[in-house]
Amino acid sequence: MGFALLRVLVVATILLGVNYVAWRWLFSLNWYAWWIAIPLVIAETYSLIDVALFGMTMWRARTRPRPPVPEAGLTVDVFITTYNEPIELVADTARAARDIRYPHSTWILDDGARDDMRAAAAELGVGYISRGEEWKGRPLHAKAGNLNNALLSTEGEFLLILDADQVPLPHILDNALGYFADPKVALVQTPQEFGNVATGDPLGSQAPLFYGPIQQGKDGWNAAFFCGSNALLRREALMQLGLTQYVREVERAVLVALRGADRVISRARRTTDPNDVMINAALDEIALAVDTARSSLKQGEPIARVTYDLQQQIDAVSHAMVSFDLHLLEMDLAAIRELDAGAGDPIDVLLDVDSTVDTLAMRQLSPLGALESVQALLRTIDVDRSDEAVPLMPLATISVTEDMATSMRLHGLGWKTVYHHELLAIGLAPEDLGTMLKQRLRWAQGTMQVLLRENPLVQRGMSWAQRLMYFSTMWSYLSGFAAVVYFTAPIVFLCFGVLPVDSNAAEFFLRFLPFMVVNQLLFAVSSRGVSTWRGQQYSLALFPIWIRAVTSAVANVYFNRPLGFVVTSKTRQEGNQWGLVRVQFVLACFLIVSTVIGVTRLVLGVGEPIGTFVNVAWVVFDLVVLSVLIPAARFRGFDSNPEEVSA
Questions:
Q1: What tens digit of pLDDT does each residue of 92-128 get?
Q2: Distances (CA, A) of 278 to 49, 244, 324, 363
Q3: In angstroms, rounded to a whole number, what is the distance separating the alpha carbons of residues 333 and 360?
Q4: Between β-strands 425-427 and 167-168, what pairing exists: parallel, antiparallel or unpaired?
Q5: Ordered domains of the chain (ranges, CATH)
Q6: In this structure, are residues 481 and 547 in contact, taking their beta carbons and an 8 Å threshold?
Q7: pTM of this prediction?
Q8: How far apart are CA 240 and CA 109, in angstroms?
């Protein structure tokens, strides 16, 4: 019954939403205030797409039965990633990982290469891995590079990846490893929950909607994705992914080189005398060789053979041209010797030599420059990937968060993923607002990097449902721009009397209220009784973070500007936190002023009462949303005054 009701609500929400947004676009825009009317209807359209993607996610929400007991004898490596976390914290996680019941090997992957961390690992009786000399002077790729380095130093069939603060329960492998009885399962993701969250979750650390209904919904479409920790992966799948990506990147480099060769040849033709048969014939030979190489790649011939054959053909043309140039040079030297032998007056000799040099300089020589440029382009194809520490990078390195891109690529290769909804590890959440904001910014930046570099909507190998499941998560981080409009519109009306909607109140509410009511019912039914209000507050209140994530990701991907990756601190950071949300508090001041103006209008009976009342209610709701930042900025961890950690 509950599942049927959810689907009815999904259909009703989308139909009522389309009815409302279509009416807004076609019949209710106030073109005299287009500068606020157009942004508002675009924001509403964005929200409709967002809720439609959410409805699709919930359409096949899946609650899995308990997996079979894992067979004996499977080899498992437990990886604990660390960089600068306190030794005691990492040791606690390593100790719990060591004591996991199912036989396994435990490894601390120390990107800080700390001697005291190595000593702690030896004392605990667990393995220790840090970067080798081959990584010096090469890209480190943060956590993804750390894991890729460890993959090449270990041999377990399966991997359990844990962040330094995620303490596993003893039965984590017993309860999740059994899914790999299906040979197509590459990933099993379990929830991330935190044991140090204060009453009321003032920093919004817990994510019960995501680690629950949303991941279960994605799981129904075989699109549950890797979240960086508390996840098991199949080594075979990762190594296949590494090999596939290696081939794709080398192939991409070859195609780029061939396109560059086309441009070089075209430029050489423009500077060559059309009547010079030998030079044009040489250029034709090079162009044919490049076209043949491109066709061979499309037909699936090995890259090494294609590039070798192309090099051989260019070398043959080059050899012929060098022989021809040497012959011309011999003729030129002979002419100069004859000139010298019949020399008369020294000044006449100087004039004759200058004339001869001018004549030689005007001669069209062979296209050796073009040949050398093409060969240089081919030499840039680094099959050994000498710019990287290791040629294979199974975990994606295109983003500051390696998880989503890795699982997306696994799905593209036809692998399955699983979301196992059971608490099997307990972590530590940020204990101050600044650390939380950095963490959210990094998540959002990483997600947007993946969208910009490997948009799931155009990736090969995935079903359309899987593409939309990934895209829906990426789409949600664009909400910061819509939030700005939603905060601004009621302020503009209450302060300046500018209404972006050209309609009477009855017509507006007849379309808007049914959509909003059914939309809220959909969220209530989907959440299955789990409170999602804190998450909704933060999704709007952190709009400057989402906007910054998008703009900085664009600058990074298209203009090569660094993101300034920061590892989330596992200890509370001291200092004043209020300045971190100054934008939101300035906005709150505007909202308060507009509320006073609106209430004054209602009391005095000035203006259109229904519109004023609706916008006053709107700004009050916005203030309630932003109020979540007050306890967040005051929060100082567990040793704080109880009044400061209350909801």
A1: 999 999 999 999 999 999 999 999 999 999 999 999 9
A2: 62, 43, 9, 13
A3: 11
A4: antiparallel
A5: 2-59+474-541+574-636 (no CATH), 76-243+392-433 (3.90.550.10), 273-370 (no CATH)
A6: yes
A7: 0.85
A8: 22
